[in-house]
Amino acid sequence: MRNVQEWVVSGLVVTAAVIGSALEATAIEPTTKTEHPSPEPIQIVAAIAIDPATVAKRKAVSVHVKVDNFTLVDPAEAQEHPAQAEGHLHYRVDQGPVIATTATKLSFHDLSSGDHVITVQLAADDHTPIGPPQVLTVKIP
Question: Is pLDDT above 50 for 15?
């Protein structure tokens, strides 16, 4: 059985697909206001689980993110100097470390059975959050 769901929260659209597991999303209000406006809305237009049938069997989740109106820049190269509509992505599984990257496809392997929370957040060059994070809860069988 394929479970596909889509959420629209504050201009962000997140689509996730998982086969054989439960999936839900919750929007979390940002705890820090940002001073990084852009001329057009910044959007994560799609965040999907890639090949969910295969990854569920392997106790893994792969996420693909598409970003519009925002330039992804390597955090190491930006040297923490914020520029308008520029930055990177922060990924996090459960309470694990934040992964700061420009990668729009990221896989998380060796997940234990049960619920896992995957967070995707746009971040400015100085790692300041931009907009609300998208939070997906995935149940690994």
Answer: no
Q: How far is CA 31 from the centre of its chain?
A: 17
| Residues 36-87 pLDDT 10s | 554 566 666 556 666 666 766 788 888 989 888 899 999 888 776 778 889 9
H helices of the chain, in order, are 52-57, 75-78
Q: Rounded to whole angstroms, how far apart are CA atoms 134 and 100?
A: 15
Other C-beta atoms within 10 Å of 44: how many?
24
With b for 16 or more beta-carbon neighbours within 10 A and e for fewer, the 103-120 pattern comes to ebebebeebeeeebebbb
The CA distance from 36 to 77, in Å, is 18
Cα–chain-centroid distance for residue 109? 16
Q: How many domains does the chain have?
A: 1
Domain residues for the domain of 36 are 2-140
CATH code assigned at 53: 2.60.40.10
Q: Any idea what the Cα angle at residue 98 is, between residues 96 and 100, rounded to 5°?
A: 155
SS3 76: helix
